[in-house]
Backbone:
């Protein structure tokens, strides 16, 4: 990928300055653009809004199902009860819960 940097002068509000202009070949630009688009694609993790209890426990770094139950009962994380045996958890509410518990450093 060939990228060339060129400096040019400009005048702005009576203050002189320089501006950097980057020249890039069209093939290199397309490659760079494709890499950017790929990075912006949602990952499988981002697409899966609803996760099972096992994955919820992994994200929360907990081992006891009773802790997950308490979090449900206390309204700390969102869940959806599909039937008597299936409960799904909202990944984003779990991430928000974790963020709400962070401490600021001094």
Residues:
């Amino acid at each position: 990928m060939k990228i060339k940097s060129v400096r040019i002068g400009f005048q702005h509000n009576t203050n002189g300055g320089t501006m950097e202009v980057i020249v890039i070949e069209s093939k290199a630009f397309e490659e760079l653009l494709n890499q950017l688009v790929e990075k912006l694609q949602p990952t499988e993790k981002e697409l899966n809004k609803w996760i099972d209890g096992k994955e919820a426990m992994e994200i929360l770094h907990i081992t006891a199902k009773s802790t997950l139950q308490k979090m449900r009962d206390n309204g700390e994380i969102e869940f959806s009860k599909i039937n008597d045996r299936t409960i799904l958890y909202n990944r984003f509410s779990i991430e928000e819960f974790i963020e709400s518990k962070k401490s600021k450093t001094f």
